[in-house]
Amino acid sequence: MPNVGARPGKERILVVDDEQNARVALRTILSEEGYEIAEAADGEEALALLPGFAPAAVLADVRMPRMDGINLLRRAREQGSDAVFVMMTAFASVEAAVEAMRAGAENYLVKPLDVNAVLVVLEKALEKLRLQRDTANLRERVRERYRFHNIVGDAPELHAVYEVVKRAAPTRATVLILGESGTGKELFAQALHEESPRADKAFIKVNCAALSETLLESELFGHEKGAFTGAIGRKEGRFELADGGTLFLDEIGDISPALQIKLLRVLQQREFERVGGTQTLKVDVRLVAATNRDLAAEVKNGRFREDLYYRLNVVAVTLPPLRQRKGDIPALVSHFIDKYSKAYGKDIRGLAPGTLNAVLSHDWPGNVRELENVVERAVVLCKGSELTADDLPPTLRGPRPRERAPGALIPGATLYEIEREAILRTLEMVGGSTSRAAEILGISVRKIQYRLKEYAAGGREGGAGHDHSHDGEHEPEKAGGME
Asked: Which architecture does CATH list for 12-137?
């Protein structure tokens, strides 16, 4: 039974040994140190205790009846336990130590146990566990802070955008989203709505560039019967439909001067009339606008009203183009592969070696929309379980990477080439997740992002006289860095 007299805040330790005297001795020592202790006489008994007791560490004998310590460790991992395991044995054999470490043990103690050694090894193991858990909790908090529906991206260039969305969403302030075509302006407008108190109300969107002036006016404000040819009945406009919710006006820079005046009135007075009508209507609408134009330049050139510009520009956010956030490309590719594999009923697990390099080398003038179209096309054409360079459009294929046999990279290769191969292959293996790749490779997410930008720009080839030993450790932080 657990020691109920343990000091609060101390970790729980499960002692597993078929020798009762050994268990009693360890209980006494560890209880005096303030740990909470439970005991088990073999692996099966310990396995039954794990879910309820949830120890931070397990001290387990290697050799026990029914289930030995190494099988206990393996079964515990299958159950999802993250407890650190320290194995004990009376046999000081290298083979037993190697087997225990391969199975995932944190350390290894030889019987008869030295009290000081037990405490030192245990504390080091627990400290490592604390750091791992703290890191995981921090990462989850960061992800929760910056998580938006359907938006994929952890690049530092996006963090300032996420922060603005989080701060502006709870308010009713008008937001102007700037950025090139295909950068995801509509997704961020949707995120502003979903993170706001209006989330349970309507999210209405209008593409201002897709309609003529007359049709756009009718779409926005509605019309009365007979207001113009074809107006056979009354129609409610998008402002009315969005009452209480959010109205997203995409390509706001394309509206005519006459409509600019009417839109300005709605923003100033929160009222309007339908086309052909005389009744003044009042609405409560949160407006989000977007454009790929430089509105400040449009104002300077007389093509956009200055007063409307300032009404729209209460909170402005600029989305970075994909060429500035190429570190997000692996995750985006993985996301689109999953999306279109399901849509087309295919079983495609990822990218073949060398394909990611070809994708990174492209400049992506069409941004995320272009990338999505490329991946969709590749999924349609793919004949196997991985996308290859042959599935990409000819403009993306470029020169073929030199084929290498397994293990053939190291002889004659530079450290830079080896590192590049390791990063790209690992990203392909983990579906583009920079955080998972960083954990596997033992480097920072920031370094991977930095390297991907470098590879996309053509990269260096480890030229003579360049010391790469500290690359990525001193790159400048971007705004809103995370993970």
From this structure: 3-Layer(aba) Sandwich (3.40)
